[in-house]
Amino acid sequence: MTLRAARLALPLLATLSLGACADATRTERNVGTGALGGAALGGIIGSFSGNAGWGALIGGAGGAGAGYLYEQSQRAQDRAYWQGRQDSRRYRR
C-alpha cells in the first residue's frame, strides 16, 4: 500500500470504527477510553526507547485496567448517592 493510500484509508478506518461505540455501556466507554489513552501515552514513551509498539501495548493494557478501576469507583459513588437519597426519604416521613 502506498503512503498516499494509507493517508486516506487510516482516517476512514478510524471514523468507521467509532461507529461501533454508539451503543456502548458506560463501563465499555471508560475501559476503551483508558486503553486508548494508555496506548497513546505508552507509544509516545516507548518511541523514546525505540519500542513504540511494545510501549503502546503495555500502555493500552495499563490504561484499560485504570479505566476499569475508574468505572468501579464511579459505580461505588453512584450506589452511595442513591443509598443516601433512599435513607433521607425514609427518615423524612
From TrEMBL:
UniProt signal peptide: 1-22
The keyword Signal is annotated on this UniProt entry: yes
Keywords assigned: Signal
Matching InterPro entries: Gly-zipper
Source taxon at top rank: Bacteria
Residue span of region Disordered: 74-93
Residue stretches making up the Glycine zipper domain: 33-72
Name recorded for this polypeptide: Glycine zipper
UniProt source species: Muricoccus roseus
